[in-house]
Amino acid sequence: MADLARELNVSMTTVSRALSDHFSIGPAMKQKVLKLAKKYNYQPNRMASALRKGKSKLLGIVVPYIEGRFFPSVVHGIEKAASKAGYNVIICQSNEDVAQERRSLDSLLSAQVAGVLVSLSRTTLDYRHFDKLRARGVPLVYFDRVVEGESVNAVVLDDREGGYLSTRHLLDQGCRRIAHLAGPQHLNIYKNRRQGYFDALREAGLPPDEELIVYTDMQQQQGAEAMRQLLAQPSPPDAVFGSGDYCAFGAMQEAKRQGLRVPDDLAIAGFSNESFTLVTEPAITTIDQRCEEMGQAAVRLLLEIIEAQGTLFTPRQVVLRPELLVRPSSQRRVEVAEAVPVLNGRMY
Amino acid sequence: MADLARELNVSMTTVSRALSDHFSIGPAMKQKVLKLAKKYNYQPNRMASALRKGKSKLLGIVVPYIEGRFFPSVVHGIEKAASKAGYNVIICQSNEDVAQERRSLDSLLSAQVAGVLVSLSRTTLDYRHFDKLRARGVPLVYFDRVVEGESVNAVVLDDREGGYLSTRHLLDQGCRRIAHLAGPQHLNIYKNRRQGYFDALREAGLPPDEELIVYTDMQQQQGAEAMRQLLAQPSPPDAVFGSGDYCAFGAMQEAKRQGLRVPDDLAIAGFSNESFTLVTEPAITTIDQRCEEMGQAAVRLLLEIIEAQGTLFTPRQVVLRPELLVRPSSQRRVEVAEAVPVLNGRMY
DNA sequence: TTGTACGCGTTATCAT
DNA sequence: ATGATAACGCGTACAA
Prior knowledge:
Two copies of one chain form a homodimer. Chain A contains twelve helices and twelve strands. Chain A has about 350 residues and is an alpha/beta fold. Chain A has three domains: about 1-45, lambda repressor-like DNA-binding domains (434 Repressor (Amino-terminal Domain)), CATH 1.10.260; about 55-155 and about 290-320, Response regulator (Rossmann fold, 3-Layer(aba) Sandwich); about 160-290 and about 325-345, Response regulator (Rossmann fold, 3-Layer(aba) Sandwich). In chain A, helix 9 (about 190-205) links the parallel strand 6 (about 180) and strand 7. The radius of gyration of chain A is 26 Å and the shape is elongated. At the A-B interface, helix 4, helix 5, strand 2, helix 6 and helix 11 of A face helix 4, helix 5, strand 2, helix 6 and helix 11 of B. The first copy, chain A, binds a DNA duplex (16 and 16 nucleotides) through helix 2 and helix 4. Chains A, B: Pfam families: LacI (PF00356), Peripla_BP_1 (PF00532). Chains A, B: InterPro entries: HTH_LacI, Lambda_DNA-bd_dom_sf, Peripla_BP/Lac1_sug-bd_dom, Peripla_BP_I. Chains A, B: This is LacI family DNA-binding transcriptional regulator.
């Protein structure tokens, strides 16, 4: 900037204003400055700007990990929305570890981020480390794995609705003994999916049967193990709603191994729309979590809060509607000819 | 810092030095400062530090997108390695678009990153925008989709070896007419995979047959379409080596649809170890690309260059060895009982 | 061992 | 419409 100012025989103030399109600078001057800036390949130093203004153009993300389908897609959505708004995104992984989550937050604070998006680690039971953000006036939006309550900003999928839709669908297919592979109940996503399952049963006038609920860690093996338990019962289930695709798939494998036909003897539904659910035989009915929308919604909310800095902002919880994807694993009566499922995957 | 200095009746210099563990500060003083810093919840301002020192603790990543299996895993590896070294990572997506790739670089320069990791967009044919980095003294490491040549720093998979291993394996299974679903040849990864295919054939004394090579965009549908073409030929192939898992899967579906048995009538191998390859029937033989290692290796190389700033550093190309994962889609003679394949996927 | 004073690149304030 | 100046938070050359 100093170079430009010298060459144009104006002050740095003028240059700065011209570059940031300040109204008090004449169009002629602006043109001259911009042209010279281009010529010299001037790059604004955002750090200096942020230091001076006390406002950076950085957002922080803290996720448990970047793998599988869910988090990468959400991050994808976040980065897309953020960059459109002129923000860059710093990403941190907590690796499902509170201590690392804490360190990530400190790191982001040091980096002077303008706001933070968090999905809680599985081992986070105490939320005090997030107070630091508040204390420093850094807005926070949770997504998916959130702190419950009206006092936080959060974007979540309606997991209850997802559980409800799945179970309801299985009921519609004529199933009456629907088992549920539940996830760790201290995570509200799994609690809510189970609640949706209960709600659908109740609505259908079926009493919940504890025998039909198996608690798992959501892995494929545990799904298979759970299936073994369920099939060993005197009156085994005629359908399974799994809280996740991996365990649902494990259950399906075990059922097939024992000679059951899917969906005729046993209908199956999973959760998360993992890409592999499209290529199993049969393809697995599942719930799409609107990952990318979730990321976008989270960024929108966060930017809103950032812009409302100073003003009082009433915390808001955004709830996204899940989408039920009906596939052969649960379709007992095929009414319409089914299109061949196609992976719309990337080239790698 | 000013507050601490005042409270301890020392200068900011002393505080600064104590916090950065400078040798000229006595242990007693250090303790006092650190204690008070903790009490006041002091967070260093990295921006100010970076501005002053001209060196930030930020690395930039530019990837085409964050989806599928490959890039998320590499990013995972990068973030892990970077944070271990005290760096934060800013992530940008080019969305396979040169213009956006350019903007991402500008953005990262503005953010004053200490170094950049890039995997080229599919539409990048001209590399001049990367000169800006050099001009500004910002080290650059390419990974996977790289600029060819000895003059750049890069980490790549030995794609040729991957193609060779796959084809060699198919030959070992007794296949003699091995088709190849090739990818866009201006991307070296696909060129190299094809080269490996050629090499294996030559080694086995088989002449390459252009009839057996179909060029695709790597999508599932094109794989199926390619399979149709191949099976319509007078002497159809007895094996297919696909440059990617999606097109290999499309080919397999089409083959099954036409009544062929896999692997007996047609053996199939893909590339990339997408998670779905484990759950198809049969599970698809593929090549693991060592995604996480690639990320780590890229960071290691980048940090080496950063630390060698000023010194002359000879550009280096790191080549990772691919791993062939043999699965039922290509195994004609099962010699050992196969363990049940298990998705080691995350809980979502 | 500690302190003084300046500068990193930018922008807000006040003056012209 | 433009300029002079100070300040954001930190690190360091130099002096003490």
